[in-house]
Structures are given as structure tokens and as C-alpha cells.
Amino acid sequence: MENDAFSFGIEPGGLRDIREIGILICYMLDNISKPFSSSDLIEIIQQNGIANYFATTSSISELIKNNNIKSDKDGKLLEITDNGRLISGQLYSELPLTIRQKVISSVSKLEENRVNEKQNPVLIQKLDSGGYNVTLKIADQNRDMMSLSIIVPSKKEAEQIKKNFHNSPVRVYSVILASLIGDEKLIKETIKELDND
Questions:
Q1: How far is C-alpha 171 from the chain's CA centre?
Q2: In terms of pTM, does the model score above 0.90?
Q3: Residue ranges of domains in the chain, CATH in brackets
């Protein structure tokens, strides 16, 4: 039963061994310049099918206990220690290259989305008349370059718009601008880029 719990949700080639997951966590934190949310770290590992929740949280606990990583007083942010850096530097090559590439790519995408969320706010408001008003903004330094409001029937759709917008606000802006000025070539190029992602 325990083996099933530690294997659930892991894709072929994923990690099941607590030691390997620990090396991966040290590798991830060693490649991030600042403390990182434990929930984001767990989510990245799970979403990529690399290891499951139980194995990952057990590994985090072991790493903290052995002073390889440390957490803040709330246990929400993780940071690598000198011991953890040593593990990362000496043992990272034991991890499959594809797994290392996946997690670093996911961390970069997550950090990019955090910047996008900060620079390009999305406001979701429930309407008394029903539905939700979603306002998207793209800012450039001290001015708004675009502000767009759209009404959708459900909270789920509003959240999906927010997520898609933060994935690539520049592309959203490009498609809207190209559509409004009638630049068919730019519309096609932008849609082609979106399809390739």
C-alpha cells in the first residue's frame, strides 16, 4: 500500500526514491536565486509527473532535518544551505537530464508568470446582474498601454482568462492590436507562435 502511495501520479522515468527526490530539490533550489515557496516546488514536481506529493513532502522534511535546506518560520519558503549546495553540485548528474530540464523550465515559467502578474494586473469582479467582469491591463513603466474589460458567465471562465493572459500578455496585446489595425500578417504570425507553444 505504501509503495502505491509513493508511486501514484509518477510518469515513466519519474523519481520514486526519496534520496533522488532530495537531490532534485537541492538542484532546483540551487538554481533559484531566492527563497522559493514549498507549495510551488511541490506543484512543479507533481505537475511534471516527476514525483508525487507524499514522496516530495517526505523528502523536504528529510532535507530540513539534515540541514540541507531550511524553511522560514512559517514553513512556506525554502532555501538551500551550504550542505544542500554541495549535494546539488556533486550529485545532480545522477538525475536524468530530461528531469533537470523540465524543472528548470517550469521554475523559469513560474517566475515569468509572477512578473507578468505583477506588471499586468487582472481584476475579476462578480456582477450583481450575473457573471463576472474581467479587466486586463498591460502596463509599460508608469502608464497603461492597454486596458480591456470583458464579461463572462462564470468564475471558471474568468480564472481561465486570467491564467491565459498571464501566460503571455505581450501576445494578447499583439493579437488585439493587430486585429484593431487590420494587420492580417501580424495576426497570422502571432497565432502561429501561439500554436507552437
A1: 19
A2: no
A3: 2-116 (1.10.10), 120-196 (no CATH)
